[in-house]
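Aim 2 progress update. The chain analyzed this quarter is reproduced below.
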Amino acid sequence: MDVQVYRVPMQRLIQGNGMIKESGHGVAIVGMGIVCSIGDNVFEFKESLKKGVSGITRLADRKGPKLSVDIGAEIKEFSFLDRLYRYSDLPETLLQKARHCAQRSPFSIQTSVLSALEAWQDSGMFARENDPERLGVIVAGESTTQNYRYGLHAGFETDPEYLSPRYALQFLDTHQVGVLSEILTIKGEGFVVGGASASGNVGIIKAVQLIQAGIVDTCLVTGVVADLSPIELQGFVNVGAMARGNEFQTPDQTSRPFDDQHTGFVFGQASACVILQSCDVATERKATVRSTILGAAMNLDAVSTTAPSASGEARAMSEALRRGGVCASDVDYLNAHGSSSPLGDATEVEAIKQVFGDHVSKLRVNSTKGLTGHCLYSAGVVELIASVLQMEGEFIHPNKNLENPIDHKLRFSGATTSEKVRIAFAMSNSFGFGGINSSIVFQNTC
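Predicted structure tokens:
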């Protein structure tokens, strides 16, 4: 297949004074933070990726009836206050504000605050004077308080007055926006986006668009932890999407992206945050740029089911390349959606072949979900961070449990060890139920 090199015209952006200016399309990644099953922070996460560490174990202390699934990649031994004060470089006033806003909040908000603080620290934003009206925040995830609400139900049935007044705010997904904006003094645009399993990528794409449109200079994107209740866990099993975990000897063998024994995705937990900034502003402020997003795209399949579409996925990848002005043959690495679903994996392989043609024999492919499970709302942000870390460290993490690939034309990374690889251009895919397709293309310099 002949691969076309796309060139993207300079964009015309409207400034606050109504004037038009010409600008490039790149958006810099200047900060990253994560709390997940294989790392309490970005450094630990990177080391786990290198070693191929899996966070998938038996689910611990789950309330409710016995379910058809009892495995997942949970965040364990969690203490908000213990983790909060690890950010000793941040101003004490900022940490006190975080404690005030989140100490009594649900788990999903506390993890968002922690990943956001790490990204804020990483970006050095706390050490600079910021115009709060030029800062934005996007929360990626929907129905993020499911397990919190489930846990309150028994007490509410006994005595409705038991319900805390805070609940009126805390069950709303927009409460995440309020908490993060208050802690970090963000007064530009802020909102919640949902895209099922593609929510993280959708949040990143919307942030890129805000920056490209000149609405904000800097935007924080937080992928919210999936704190599923027993109802949602069983629901995924009943629809045929989630692996039960009893097919293999140990839980960590269950997530098998692109392996012929894959049986469905494994539930994972992570809160992940990236801070995106206009390249012009990043250069002016001498920010450390960890990577640059060149192109990003999303589309719909016009369906309401769980069935994926190779043509829709291929359109998203091709459009992200076109918008980024990148030739498909220049992409060194693809962090695939790779959920370990038989239909989903096969469909993505077909789409990758459509887009990359003969280059698939050179394109290195892996799926972070083999290690972290499927982190649902935050998956896109988790996997963008994983991709940037692999770029920086010049390695490709293993495709854990990939023993018999479903396709031998693609260049999948090995099942047990990392590879030493120099990555110049990379792509990250996320696809969601309801035909939501998304892809992001990025490189390692601004």
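The chain has a mean pLDDT of 92. The first strand starts at residue 11 and ends at 14. These observations will guide the mutagenesis experiments scheduled for the next reporting period.
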